[in-house]
Design a protein that fits this description.
Elements: H1 3-14, H2 18-32, E1 40-42, E2 45-47, H3 51-64, E3 68-72, H4 78-94, E4 99-104, H5 109-117, E5 124-128, H6 134-143, E6 150-154, H7 160-170, E7 179-182, H8 206-215, E8 220-222, H9 224-230, E9 239-242
Parallel strand pairs: 3-4, 3-6, 4-5, 6-7
Antiparallel strand pairs: 1-2, 7-9, 8-9
Helix pairs in contact: 3-4, 7-8
Bound molecules: S-adenosylmethionine (SAM).
Length: about 240
Amino acid sequence: MSFEKEVKERIDANGQNELLKSSAHEFIKTSLAPEYSYNFSWLGRPIIQYPQDMIAMQELIWEVKPDLIIETGIAHGGSLIFSASMLELLYSCTGSEGEVLGIDIDIRSHNRKAIEEHPMYKRINLIQGSSIDPEIVAQVVEKIKGKKRVLVCLDSNHTHEHVLAELKAYAPLTSIGSYCVVFDTIVDDMPKELSRDRPWGPGDNPKTAVWEYLKTHPEFKIDKSIQNKLLITVAPDGYLKRIK
Ligand SMILES: C[S@@+](CC[C@H](N)C(=O)[O-])C[C@H]1O[C@@H](n2cnc3c(N)ncnc32)[C@H](O)[C@@H]1O
């Protein structure tokens, strides 16, 4: 049996391994209150992610070889620097040129300064404004002109209404064969008290928005192989592959 086939079969089996799945679920649940996801950085910038999702993004970026990555939700800039550094590696390996477009409603001046001074800034463009503001969406649509392989990551306001509006605006920009990744779908699987004072929670979050969007968008399918592989992920049902 080929190595790839073995990996695929193991991932399928892991995805049905109830003990493994419940252990992963318990880890995520227990790690939320101590704010585990705030402990990491990428090339010096804080990134608010679980490391497993970063590995999945690395695999997707290599597979898709995007010439544009659109990200909503910048915070300290770690995920932008991550994506830009992957594109830089891609360039040195394959010559494929790519850039990252980050959108945030509030790019704090110290974060902007640190991002702009970073060596990876050469592959980054920043837009300040709400990701669902039609004027901001129009700016993004302008930027995708001429791009052939677009990957989208949604990680801003995590309410159902906001993410559904982001999906309507940005998912159609995803190229066929590429992904629209919706982070923090895990909120739906966690107890309400872990969302603390946030306007989102179980029943009103990125996963409910994904499910709503997919009802009328058969051009996307949830790539379950990614969550079955990661097991520890903040994006269960959030890795959406554009298939047509
Ligand atoms: C979870 S953080 C992003 C983390 C980042 N992607 C990372 O991995 O390090 C969420 C960000 O979304 C931004 N945000 C909240 N509402 C927004 C909106 N309506 N439009 C764009 N960004 C928004 C916040 O300002 C915050 O910086």
